[in-house]
Amino acid sequence: MSFFALAYVVPLSIIASMYLLILRFLRSRRRQSMISFAQSTTSGPGGERRRTSYASRVFLAVVVVFGVCWLPLHVHLLLVYMGRQPDDRWYAVFRVIVSIHLHHLLLSHFAPFLSDFFF
Known about the structure:
The chain has a domain of 67 residues. Helix content is 88%, strand content 0%. It starts with a helix and ends with a helix.
């Protein structure tokens, strides 16, 4: 259970909190640009608002994708740890999907090193 907390919950919380801090900084910067816009009417604050809203959507997508992609592996590890592995056919398919996920994860980590040797 502590592995689940340390390997999934803590990183997800750290990622979410760091992105929230970045968004807070971007929004405070937008407020400052709106104040400067009120003082000089040479440019509008609309572009800054769109960039902040786009950044918030991208950050939310990153956090959600991280959570969704890593959750199946950690659910499987929790089931193994608790000794409650079902013998159903769906769980066999689930294990294959988790294995494929781990294979792709390893490939993505080693691909930059392998490309240096072959290219």
